[in-house]
Every structure is written in structure tokens, then in C-alpha cells.
Amino acid sequence: MTTTTTLPTAPEATPVASPSGADAAPAASRLSATGLIRSEWIKLRSVRSTVWSYALLVAFSLGLAAVMSASLDLQGADVSQVPAANQAIFVAQASTFGVFFGQLIVAVLGVLSISGEYSTGMIRSTLAAVPKRLPALWAKVVVLFGTTFLVGLVSTVGSHLVSSAVLSGKGLQAGLFEPTVLFPVLGGALYLGLIAVFALGVGTIVRNGAGGIAVVLGLLLLVPMVLQLIPAAWATSLLPYLISNAGINMFGLMSFSEVPIAWWVDLLVVLGWIAASLIGAAALLKRRDA
Prior knowledge:
11 helices, single chain, globular, disordered N terminus, about 0% strand
């Protein structure tokens, strides 16, 4: 006679309903604007190229201000006969002379701040943490502009102190808070911050360090030179509306147009270039894979 043994079975688990009546799901974490900005700040300051770029910006600005001020040869002229307005203009020119070269440094930094993430693959982590993508781009814009503006302000104010110290020995004096000096000093720092943002947009579009740098430097240096060499009225008419020329005109120290253009028009031209780069960057960032 065969005995059949029946093993006891475990009772079926009773599903526990969630408080909302739906299946339980992990809550999606939301990144605040402050958190995004903090994250981008950590990225920016932890890269060696950032430190070197800003250090070169300050060093070049101070050095060029000293060289320009020391190279002034009055040839025995009576400085007391020079109007105070003309003295202030020359002091302002010496204080902002480094901006002409500093724009190239911050342009390279702006491209590298985004192209470096593509080259290392960090962009995948960034986009995974920020699925909507665009908030990460705006956070980069805020951090890069704010940092570059502050460093640019340090370089222009420092350049003013250097040039004032050198020029005072030659009898030329102008205070920092004189409108003829203060406006170019602030405008130079603002322009450096805007150029960095423009380069960030181009770098996001190109997604390659070398390619992005070539495009930005070409727009800042090559295109103005080519247009100046073309003996045509249309080429001359386009010069004031290039981003670099409009940015320099914004200082009020140089003009690329036969008809004087108000500083706020130059600012709008620069902002237009930046808007074009950021709109293209935002559109492609949303559409393309990392």
C-alpha cells in the first residue's frame, strides 16, 4: 500500500494596495534650479582648463595694461594742457586693452565647458539627471556668464589700477568712477561674459572642441578681417553688425561705422548673436542623442 504525502503550500501573498489605489512606483526626484546651478558650478571649477583660462585672462589684461601705459610717449608735451576728458579716454583705453585678447580666451573656455562633457561621456550622466535637458543648458549659461563676468570685472578693474599707477607718473589721471572710465570697464567685463555664453551655444551645436573653437574664433577674428579686405559697400555696411565689432563698439572707445551707433544698439546686436547660438543649441540638444 502506497502512502501519498501532501506537502503544505505557502499561503498566497495578498497584494497591498497603495494609499492612492495605484501600483507603487518610485517617486521621481526633481532637481531644483539651485541644485542645477550648484552642479554646473562644481563642473566648471573642477576642470583645469577653467583655472588656467581665467588666470591667463587676468594676467594678460594686467600685463597689456602695463605695456600700453608704459609705451605712451608724450614727447615733452605739457600734460596740463590735455583736457581731462581726453586723459580719461586714454586711461579707459589702457584699462580695457586686454579685452581684445581676453575675448579669445573666454571663447575657448565657453566651447570647452560643453565639448568636454561630450568628449568624456559625462553628458550622458548630465542628461540622465536632467531628462528635460534644457534646464541643464540654462544652468550652464548662468554659471558661465556669472563667473566670467566677475573674473572679467577683476581683470578690467585691476587693469585700471595698473594703468592709473603708470600713467599718473606721466601726469595723466582719471578716476575709476568717472563715467568715461567706469562705463568701458563695466562694458568690457559684460562683453567677456556674453562672448563666453555665445561660445557655449556654438560648442553645444558643434559638440566638438576643435570644431567649436574654430567656428567661434573664425567669427571673432577671421570674418571681420575678410570683410575689411573686400572693397564693397555691402561689406563695409556689415562690419558694425559682427559680434566682435559690436561688442567693441559697446565700450564707446572705437567705431566700425561711419555713422555713430548708440551703445544699446551694439548691445542688442551682441544679444542677437547670442540668442541665435542658444536657440540653435537648445533645439539640437532636445533632438539629438548624447
